[in-house]
């Protein structure tokens, strides 16, 4: 019987305040975050932004307890998944691979090879596919396996997206219902789905299916919930000068307040674990906007985390993937007619869909400074000798 492994992919985050600087450097070293015309500029700019913004970033993490809970929650999800699969008669090894912090994807792949895993299920913890989340992780896997074929298991299969999975839809509906039932008039409360946004060009020019999958997922959750409540879908975490998917969360909240909505349940639809964008952006920033707009009762549905029904969903995904023909990384790039694994390369600032929101905002400061320097020949990069 072959040795089976499951690789859970996620973004990662600093575990403690001392990790924030290195985490920022890793984040901004990725050309998916800031795309530059010259690759040699990437790491110097990442170092500059991380060096100048670490203290500010640490202050944001202090608001949510001094570090990201993402690793702890993801590892707990992995342990619960392992037990659930064992109960179903399927023994597996679970691995966690993060993009920007420990345990890195590179560490997970090395351990998978050491454990002599023969059959690997690659499961990104992003329900909806985007070229900048699941796609980014898939590109890294492909690169690692091309550079060292000995690291690649004998067989593997990829689960590119899974937003239609019935148990996932059910747990989302249950989490929403729990919050609705705490409202004075449950059927009158407005359900507000907030998804992480992406630049509009990702969808229109790069063929990213993310917007379509988010819209379908929202409709499926509402069908599963089977309640009469009105609902809105909006996109959070917009940064930079380019147009992102609309409506923007802050604008939609203000509009609902102007319409007289008093009770709202916010649903972080594109997140399966609590992290900076739920605990800080939604719970603090968007709550303040909502209250200033006249929305008196602001509630938020929890992320699925380790909810038993969510773990059941992950287990069903793994079992189903093992029973079907393998789905390869090359196929993930062709899921939709126009999908490209890489967005267009040009002078445009972009951010991964699950990146920590305030990190994106401060990155814009570094990008603007770089633009000024390249155009005028003056600025901080010249003063410290990074640019001639």
Automatic annotation (TrEMBL):
Main location: cytoplasm
Any GO BP annotation: heme biosynthetic process
Pathway info: Porphyrin-containing compound metabolism; protoheme biosynthesis; protoheme from protoporphyrin-IX: step 1/1
Pfam family, one: Ferrochelatase
Gene Ontology molecular function: ferrochelatase activity; metal ion binding
Catalyzed reaction equations: Fe-coproporphyrin III + 2 H(+) = coproporphyrin III + Fe(2+); heme b + 2 H(+) = protoporphyrin IX + Fe(2+)
Subcellular location: Cytoplasm
Annotated binding of Fe(2+), by residue: 196, 277
Keywords: Cytoplasm, Heme biosynthesis, Iron, Lyase, Metal-binding, Porphyrin biosynthesis
Top-level taxon in the UniProt lineage: Bacteria
GO cellular component, one term: cytoplasm
PROSITE patterns reported in the protein's UniProt record: FERROCHELATASE (PS00534)
E.C. number(s) listed in UniProt: 4.98.1.1
Family statement: Belongs to the ferrochelatase family.
Physiological role: Catalyzes the ferrous insertion into protoporphyrin IX.
Identification of the protein by name: Ferrochelatase
Organism, as annotated: Chrysosporum bergii ANA360D
């Amino acid at each position: 019987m072959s040795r089976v492994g499951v690789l859970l992919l996620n973004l990662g985050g600093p575990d403690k305040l001392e990790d924030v600087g290195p985490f920022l450097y890793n984040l901004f070293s990725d050309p998916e975050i800031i795309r530059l015309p010259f690759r040699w500029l990437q790491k110097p700019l990442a170092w500059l932004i991380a060096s100048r913004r670490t203290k500010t970033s640490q202050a944001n993490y202090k608001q949510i307890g001094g570090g990201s809970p993402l690793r702890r929650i993801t590892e707990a999800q992995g342990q619960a998944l392992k037990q659930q699969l064992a109960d179903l008669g399927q023994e597996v090894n679970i691995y966690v691979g993060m993009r920007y912090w420990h345990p890195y994807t590179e560490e997970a792949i090395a351990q998978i090879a050491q454990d002599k895993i023969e059959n690997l299920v690659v499961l990104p913890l992003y329900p909806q596919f985007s070229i900048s989340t699941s796609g980014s992780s898939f590109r890294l896997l492909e690169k690692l396996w091309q550079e060292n074929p000995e690291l690649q298991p004998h067989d593997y299969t990829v689960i590119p997206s899974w937003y239609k999975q019935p148990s996932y839809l059910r747990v989302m509906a249950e989490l929403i219902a729990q919050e609705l039932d705490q409202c004075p008039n449950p059927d009158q409360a407005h359900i507000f789905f907030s998804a992480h946004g992406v630049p509009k060009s990702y969808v229109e020019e790069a063929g990213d299916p993310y917007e379509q999958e988010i819209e379908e997922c929202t409709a499926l959750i509402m069908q599963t919930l089977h309640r009469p409540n009105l609902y809105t879908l909006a996109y959070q975490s917009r940064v930079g000068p380019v147009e992102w998917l609309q409506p923007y969360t802050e604008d939609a909240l203000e509009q609902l307040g102007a319409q007289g909505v008093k009770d709202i349940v916010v649903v972080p639809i594109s997140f399966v674990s609590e992290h900076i964008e739920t605990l800080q952006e939604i719970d603090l920033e968007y709550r303040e906007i909502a209250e200033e707009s006249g929305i008196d009762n602001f509630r938020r549905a929890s992320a699925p985390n380790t909810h038993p029904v969510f773990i059941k969903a992950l287990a069903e995904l793994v079992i189903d993937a093992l029973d079907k023909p393998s789905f390869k990384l090359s196929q993930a790039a062709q899921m939709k007619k126009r999908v490209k694994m890489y967005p267009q390369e040009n002078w445009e600032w972009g951010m991964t869909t699950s990146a920590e929101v305030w990190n994106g905002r401060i990155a814009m400061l570094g990008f603007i400074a770089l633009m000024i320097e390249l155009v005028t020949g003056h600025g901080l990069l010249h003063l410290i000798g990074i640019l001639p």
